[in-house]
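[step 3/7] inverse_fold.run input=structure_tokens len=762
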């Protein structure tokens, strides 16, 4: 039974106490709130009225609304019962006082003795000292914190669960009203939502700057009818919508073959049939909410829990519930995926997360991508990089804040997102883009010039690729060939294992597009951070040091054989270059080569043409290979240093771990000396050597690698221009002396000396 987690999960999400149904009072209050909403009134007047109505209906002396002024400051925006003069004066920081505590934790505080409660802070200007009981509930919408709603009374008592619930419903309606702009206007308590400039700090996913307009991957459903008079009718609407949801999930399930997709759909079906979920929504309806508000209320609750979920598996399931709620809302509101909005001409995609396949469907039409979640190594990030689309990940709140069509600027270099930027930001940003465009022009002008350093040293610049979409860059960037073709990308962006014929067709298209330029196909490099969606992940204590790349290829040779055969077929007699990833010792290379020989023999038997020239190389990604027997260097047709992995093993610093991955400089004397040792060995034995890690595309690093004798560098296509431009102006022999002097002088890294030298050149 795959879903043992279900029982635990549902109680974890819905662990609120059961409440009696005292709906008539609450329905009355909701109706009055709705009327307030319908009235023509300024924002402040509406807020005042709501505090009045709520206090009256709940029988408390005080009701106050605190709203966020900025991300960390709450302001008393309306009150019934506290001193009028404190309105718009009393402010507190997130976490400060009881109100701040409610906001920070996103949880209810209910106490009979407020002054004695943890975190209480006395605000003399409000006159609240006489009130003993305090009930505060967060005002939040789909995980976004908007403020806090509080009732207080003199009598020392805890509020009943029924009262807590009633206040939560009011808070929810308030949040929805805020979203609809109900509190904007004369004497405005709130600025209109989604109109202010916002700066979001995320993490860099792919460099580059882009300006455009927001295109939401999943447009927000707008709920306008928050409150309903006829619960029977609303229950029936909900019931019908849930049924049609169940049918649609069943249909999807019937046609889904991919096990991963099936697992998600099974989880959807489980939720869709969940009695707990349904019961909660029906209770909300009985309290006076419309069917869609009831769905949204439970969705908000799940989102709030999502933010706190410790376990990634639980988080995923909560995300399933969230997706399902969106589907249900679409059914109820009739707002389809296509909300009638047209994709702007310069779309910047905004999404919580996105799969690589979906991203490929948008393709190069996108000017930029902003994700609320995601990770640097995610498949979507890999695709964005391959397409060279600026990407910012972890941009908190972007999906709740951005609206379709909003003006947006994405700074992929620094991980910044300017949503609805003001004129100063627009000016500065455009200057930056203009400078980048100028640089691009400069690079274009040297595109077809061979890369020869000022001292006359010829350096070969290749590009890294992995998708068909990369190939046009071979011409555009001026790359001399593809130094690294990461074949795993084809496996990663699909939901199932590709077939040999598909791969053969794809590799043939790659070779066609390369028009005779060399393409180094690397056999499947999976494991570690690259987990195939359709392969059961291995629970390994140390995946980077685990069962990955050639280790998987040799232990389960089926896929590798299929791949080698596909490559031979694709070559169709043309020259072919293949390399094996992550070779740590000689016999792994020999075993890989033996597979190649077997594949050739088989093709020959079948009467298929054999490439006129085949080279089989190895990637040097572990220090051990640098010390392999001389015979290995003689047997291997070429070596390519996978600097990303080599560096992580050389310094024992995980390349995926933000805490340590930048800790050791590539220009660290030890590392450079080590690479130089490999260069020397290769030279002595005559083994062609290249370097294809990320560092090859960083201009200063590229210079130093070339200076110590690496003659071929392979990098992202966008890096070729900047690297070549600098390389052509620098005397590598002089730079080598600078490196040697710094090393002899005891420098830990040669970077300062190199930078100083380059500054002198300017
Ligand atoms: C490397 O390790 O440097 C490399 C090029 O391979 P990947 O980044 O795909 O592991
Ligand atoms: Mg590697």
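[step 3/7] decode complete -> sequence:
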């Amino acid at each position: 039974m795959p879903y043992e987690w279900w029982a635990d999960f549902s109680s974890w999400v819905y662990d609120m106490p059961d409440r009696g149904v005292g709906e008539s009072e609450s329905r009355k209050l909701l109706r009055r709130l709705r009327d307030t909403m319908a009235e023509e009134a300024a924002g402040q007047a509406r807020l005042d009225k709501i505090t009045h109505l709520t206090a009256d209906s709940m029988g408390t002396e005080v009701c106050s609304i605190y709203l966020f002024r900025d991300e960390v400051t709450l302001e008393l925006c309306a009150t019934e019962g506290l001193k009028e003069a404190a309105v718009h004066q009393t402010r507190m920081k997130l976490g400060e006082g009881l109100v701040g505590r409610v906001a920070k934790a996103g949880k209810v505080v209910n106490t009979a003795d407020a002054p004695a409660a943890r975190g209480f802070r006395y605000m003399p200007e409000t006159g609240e000292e006489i009130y003993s009981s305090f009930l505060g509930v967060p005002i939040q919408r789909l995980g976004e914190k908007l403020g806090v709603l509080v009732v207080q009374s003199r009598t020392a008592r805890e509020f009943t669960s029924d009262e807590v619930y009633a206040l939560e419903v009011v808070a929810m309606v308030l949040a929805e009203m805020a979203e609809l702009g109900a509190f904007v206007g004369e004497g405005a308590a709130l600025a209109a939502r989604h109109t202010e400039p916002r700066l979001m700090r995320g993490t860099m996913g792919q460099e580059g700057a882009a300006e455009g307009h927001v295109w939401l991957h999943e447009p927000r459903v707008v709920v306008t009818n928050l409150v309903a008079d006829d619960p029977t009718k609303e229950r029936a609407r909900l019931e019908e919508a849930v049924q049609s949801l169940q049918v649609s999930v069943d249909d999807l399930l019937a046609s889904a073959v991919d096990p991963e997709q099936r697992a998600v759909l099974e989880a959807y079906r489980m939720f869709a049939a969940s009695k707990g979920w349904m019961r909660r929504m029906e209770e909300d309806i009985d309290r006076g909410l419309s069917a869609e508000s009831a769905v949204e209320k439970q969705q908000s609750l799940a989102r709030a829990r999502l933010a706190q979920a410790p376990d990634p598996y639980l988080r995923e399931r909560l995300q399933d519930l969230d997706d399902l709620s969106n589907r249900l809302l679409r059914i109820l509101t009739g707002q389809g995926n296509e909300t009638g909005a047209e994709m702007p001409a310069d779309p910047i995609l905004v999404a919580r997360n996105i799969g690589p396949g979906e991203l490929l469907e948008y393709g190069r039409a996108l000017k930029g991508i902003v994700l609320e979640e995601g990770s640097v190594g995610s498949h979507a990030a890999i695709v964005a990089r391959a397409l060279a689309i600026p990407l910012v990940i972890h941009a908190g709140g972007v999906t709740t804040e951005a609206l379709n069509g909003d003006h947006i600027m994405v700074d992929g270099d620094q991980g910044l997102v300017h949503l609805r930027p003001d004129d100063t930001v627009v000016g500065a940003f455009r200057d930056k883009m203009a400078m980048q465009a100028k640089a691009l022009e400069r690079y274009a002008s040297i595109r077809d010039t061979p890369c020869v350093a000022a001292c006359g040293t010829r350096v070969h610049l290749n590009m890294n690729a992995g998708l068909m979409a990369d190939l046009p860059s071979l011409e555009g960037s001026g790359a001399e060939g593809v130094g690294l073709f990461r074949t795993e990308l084809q496996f990663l962006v699909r939901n199932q294992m590709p077939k040999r014929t598909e791969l053969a067709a794809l590799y043939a298209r790659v070779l066609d597009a390369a028009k005779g330029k060399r393409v180094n196909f690397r056999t499947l490099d999976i494991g570690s951070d690259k987990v195939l969606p359709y392969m059961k992940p291995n629970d390994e204590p140390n995946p980077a040091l685990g069962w990955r790349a050639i280790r998987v290829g040799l232990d389960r040779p089926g896929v590798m054989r299929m791949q080698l055969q596909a490559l031979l077929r694709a070559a169709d007699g043309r020259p072919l270059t293949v390399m094996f990833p992550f070779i740590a010792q000689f016999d792994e290379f020999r075993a890989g080569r033996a597979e190649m020989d077997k594949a050739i023999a088989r093709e020959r038997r079948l009467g298929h043409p054999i490439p006129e020239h085949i080279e089989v190389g190895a990637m040097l990604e572990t220090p051990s290979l640098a010390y392999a027997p001389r015979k290995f260097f003689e047997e291997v047709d070429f070596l390519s240093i996978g600097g990303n992995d080599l560096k992580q093993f050389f310094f024992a610093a995980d390349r995926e771990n933000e805490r340590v991955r930048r800790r050791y400089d590539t220009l660290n004397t030890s590392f450079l000396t080590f690479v130089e040792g490999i260069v020397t060995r290769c030279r002595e034995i005559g083994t062609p050597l290249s370097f294809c890690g990320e560092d090859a595309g960083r201009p200063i690093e590229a210079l130093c690698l070339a200076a110590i004798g690496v003659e071929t560098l392979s990098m992202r296509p966008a890096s070729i221009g900047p690297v070549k431009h600098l390389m052509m102006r620098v005397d590598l022999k002089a730079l080598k002396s600078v490196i040697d002097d710094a090393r002899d002088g005891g420098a830990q890294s040669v970077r300062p000396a190199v930078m100083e030298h380059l500054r002198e050149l300017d």
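[step 4/7] annotate
DSSP finds 28 helices and 22 strands in the chain.
The mean pLDDT is 87.
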